[in-house]
Structures are given as structure tokens and as C-alpha cells.
Amino acid sequence: MTQWRRKGADEVYAPEEIEARLKAELPHWTYEDGWIRRKYKTSGWKATLMVVNTVGHLAEAAWHHPDLAVSYAFVIVKLVNHAAKGVTEKDFALARKIEEVVQWQPAKEEGAVLEGTPNDDARFKYLKYDAA
User: Fold this and answer.
1) How buried is 54 (Cβ within 10 angstroms: 0-12 exposed, 13-18 middle, 19+ buried)?
2) Spatial contact of 19 and 58, defined as CB atoms under 8 Å apart
3) Model confidence over 14-43: pLDDT tens digits?
4) In what order do the strands lie in the sheet with 67-71?
5) What is the pTM of this model?
6) SS3 at position 122
7) Can you tell me the distance from the alpha carbon of 76 to that of 129, in angstroms, rounded to the nearest whole number?
8) CB 11, CB 89: distance < 8 Å
9) What is the pLDDT of residues 92-106, one digit of tens each?
10) Helices (H) and strands (E) in the chain — how many of each?
């Protein structure tokens, strides 16, 4: 099993370290062609735009900008640190925040007061959440 150690914000991780970290921390993300990437499936265009806007807000707030591929029912997020020319701690940090916000399901939180979107009703379903 490949081991990795936390590096400085702009130190580039080796491919083996990236794969190990993704497996341990971000299992729905993959390493491909020098980027870490994630495909979010949606129920249609409006939901896709909500995901794009969420990712856009988080990326701008972080001052670290992903590449996006946007289609009718999915969004692909790709992260790399362009200045460092590789995947760095900044990419992992932004990926974790995107994952946390996009996959948030308030109704599944202990003591939740927010009911969350009814995922069992096609009129309201907008994101295809990962199985918990």
C-alpha cells in the first residue's frame, strides 16, 4: 500500500500518493491525466447549474479554480494546481469542500431541523447522491 505524507500547500504529490489519498479521503474522486476529477450526476439542467454555481462559489472563495465539463445531467470537476504544475494540498482541500457541500443532505444529520430535498419525489429530486 502506498503511503503519503501531508505536504506544503504548493508541493506536488506523486501519482501513487494521489491515488492513495483519494482512496482514503475522497473515494468518489479519481486521478486521471494529471488531474483529480469527480463526476456529479444530476437530474437535469437546472440541477446541473446549481452544482456549477456551488463549485464556482467555493472555487472563487478559495482562489483556486477548477476546470468544469458541463452537460445536461452531469458536471465533471477537474482540479490541478496550474502554478505548481501538479496536484497539491490545495486541490485536495478544495475537493473536500466541494464534496462536503454538494453531497450535503441535511435530513441525514443527527437532530436535523432542516428536512432536505425530498429525494423520493421526481418533482424535487435534483442530485443523484452517492450511497451512504
Assistant:
1) middle
2) no
3) 999 999 999 999 999 999 999 999 999 999
4) 30-32, 35-41, 74-79, 67-71
5) 0.89
6) coil
7) 15
8) yes
9) 999 999 999 999 999
10) 3, 4
